[in-house]
Amino acid sequence: MPRLSYRRALTRALADELARDERVFLLGEDIRVAAANVTSGLVKRFGPERVRDTPLSEQAFTSFATGAALAGMRPVIEFQIPSLLFLVFEQIVNHAHKFPLMTGGQCAVPVTYLVPGSGSRKGWAGQHSDHPYSLFAHAGVTTVVPATPADAYGLLVSAVRCDDPVVLFAPAGALDVREDVDAAALVPVPLGRARVHRPGDDVTVVAVGHLVHDALAVAEELADQVSVEVFDPRTLYPFDWDSLVESVARTGRLVVVDDANRSCGVAGEVIATVVERVPLVAPPRRVTRPDGAVLPFAPALDRAVQPGRDQLLAAIHHVMKDG
Amino acid sequence: MTDADPVRLYRTVRLIRRFEERAIELVRSGHIVGGIHPYLGQEGIAAGVCAALRADDVVAGTHRGHGHVLAKGADPARMLAELCGRATGLNAGRGGSMHAADLGVGVLGANAIVGASGAIITGAVWARRRLGADAVGVSFFGDGAVNEGMLLEAFNLAALWRVPVLFVCENNGYATTMPVAAAVAGSIPGRAEAFGMTATVVDGQDPEEVHAVTAAAVARMRAGGGPELVEARTYRFDAHHTFEHAVRLDYRPPEEVARGRSRDPVAIQGARLPDARRVAVDAEVEATLTAAVEFALASPEPDPVDALAYLYASGLTARTGGG
């Protein structure tokens, strides 16, 4: 079976959608030469009209995509740096997201915002290392964080085909993941549907993005002591609450690991929703970046601020002991 | 292609004038909540510009947007129903004054964010041309928008990619209460010229002059020319917003207001018609607006059960907010 890397899964999804639908086109900075190593080969195959390099004008080209979508196109924008989403939050939330409701259903804004390399890239410091997915989930923009190559492919395809704006965060920590994938297994993955990577009976660990792989490693390490279910939401908004409720109703315990700041983060929302619906046998735990974290530069500091396997391990032990 | 018919221009400026006066009455009577930004005094710009456009051309406007929506051809009755928050409104009561849109006649919406429409219309026109239409577009904005980075980025993108967008700056002398002289370094045409665009200054109080300048620019753009800018010098006869009717703000000297109001686009265009013709148009406009008011006030309010209808074009339903 061929090995597929996460990056090439994204490339393949873009190529397949460009080939399938003339209305799809790409916008972004340095995408012609594939500076982020995602759009490789696409300009040669589809031409510079459909793989459009933009000047450094994030706000303008984000709203340009909104206008193009209003006129019937299906733009995909690549953002080289996750923090650029702070700059275009206004254009995405105040315009792209709000237009369908504000116009009383007269329009759709099918734009995909692709962020390859969100979170820490090791050594890129404060302004290149954010993971701002909670902001979009809060605003109500469809927000996707795939963990594996096959899911990256399938969720990006679904994002491009979705009639609403979708932000897809491809965590830097997952970009080097490879898996054996049969080409026939590369299919659209429905938005809003979670995936259980490892079934378990004692505790549900909800892991976001690249942390799915850490959660699987910890689950394996604990295999002879605790039966851990690794739950990957894949889409943070809309969240697959029913599947999570079903999981936690079985295990009775919940830990969330989320590489983003703690206050008002997705981890808090997951815990709140679960405790509204499911009686737990132990107080739930979350492992996140600290409140208000700005990723410091030095490697040891960068690592110290991100959720680690030891913290996850400790959180699992806590919920096992408390219950 | 374009219609410089003086009767049509008069009908449009008169319609906008009387629409705004009726809307202000409905603000005072409490039928329009939240107030409006009256377009009074600026009618000649929307009328002159839109008379030079085709039905398949697109426009996007501002918070002071009623004139653009009406001049492009939206139904005044459904527009007024929108202002009154009725289910029959253009936006099904979801947009109101600042977001009125009628995509069916090429109005991509009034937009409450200053400077936002430029990039959206640039993307929409680029997309329409890519999909085979030879459409042009107009972005209306006020003098306050010329200091917004997002608009200047849009100037660059449109000029760089030769997207035929006419940027129409309605310079009414004030950004809310801030005089142009205190806010704008350099000049408004100078901003466009810096991006290699042709810029024309026009008397915004004369609908025929606005039409002539626009028609010439549109002809150049349709023949393959890039974007252009028109600075239409005008004067806002009434308040920035109807809240000023209750809270008197002291920022325009009375003699300046009197001088500004002395050049009335409705009177200027009306003087070009024989008296009998003008009286007939006035009667026609009154009948239209009387029917519009009756339609709006007789229309049902939207059902709160569907408050968030149209939020997602994809059919996604959001969780409710209650406990």
TrEMBL record, chain A:
Stretches assigned to the Transketolase-like pyrimidine-binding domain: 4-177
Names of the cofactor(s): thiamine diphosphate
Question: Which domain of life does this protein belong to?
Answer: Bacteria
Q: Work out whether the entry's keyword set contains Oxidoreductase.
A: yes
Could you confirm whether the keyword Nucleotide-binding appears in this record? no
* Keywords from the UniProt entry: Oxidoreductase, Thiamine pyrophosphate
The name of this protein is: Alpha-ketoacid dehydrogenase subunit beta
Organism in which the protein naturally occurs: Micromonospora deserti
Automatic annotation (TrEMBL), chain B:
Spell out the InterPro entries in the cross-references: DH_E1, PDH_E1_Alpha_Subunit, THDP-binding
For this UniProt entry, the molecular function terms from Gene Ontology, in alphabetical order, are: magnesium ion binding; pyruvate dehydrogenase (acetyl-transferring) activity
The UniProt keyword set, sorted, is: Oxidoreductase, Pyruvate, Thiamine pyrophosphate
The cofactor required is:
thiamine diphosphate
Q: Where are the transmembrane segments?
A: none
What residues does the Dehydrogenase E1 component domain cover? 12-296
UniProt keyword Membrane present: no
- A single Pfam family it belongs to is E1_dh
Q: Which GO terms describe its biological process?
A: pyruvate decarboxylation to acetyl-CoA
The protein's matches in SUPFAM superfamilies, at most eight in alphabetical order, are given as: Thiamin diphosphate-binding fold (THDP-binding)
Q: What is this protein called?
A: Pyruvate dehydrogenase
Q: What is the lineage of its organism?
A: Bacteria, Bacillati, Actinomycetota, Actinomycetes, Micromonosporales
